[in-house]
């Protein structure tokens, strides 16, 4: 993991991974806990956390795209689109970011 933090793309990949995990926790633990058990406490934590990670991923994608001189339609657009699609960050990491 330490090597991931040394490059901008590595940091972007790490943020994408964490953002994807936060969505998994939100969908499979926090929301069922809220509606099945009537306990919204985890949703109150994970909702804003996931939102912040989503925005961090978007801003970092734009930053890395400019820094690495990515062509917007070929790379930046696809990476940004991936975080809007549920679990797309995992897919885009494997298909694009791991190969750059």
From TrEMBL:
InterPro entries: DUF3817_TM. This is Integral membrane protein. Coiled coil: none annotated. It is a multi-pass membrane protein. It comes from the Bacteria. Its main location: membrane. It is found in: Cell membrane. It comes from Flavobacterium endophyticum.
């Amino acid at each position: 993991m330490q090597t991931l933090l040394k490059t901008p793309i590595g940091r972007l990949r790490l943020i994408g991974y964490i953002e994807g995990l936060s969505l998994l926790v939100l969908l499979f633990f926090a929301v069922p806990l809220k509606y099945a058990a009537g306990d919204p406490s985890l949703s109150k934590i994970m909702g804003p956390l996931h939102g912040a990670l989503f925005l961090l991923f978007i801003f970092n994608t734009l930053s890395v795209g400019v820094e690495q001189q990515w062509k917007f339609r070929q790379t930046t657009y696809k990476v940004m689109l991936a975080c809007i699609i549920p679990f797309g960050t995992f897919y885009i990491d494997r298909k694009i970011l791991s190969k750059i």
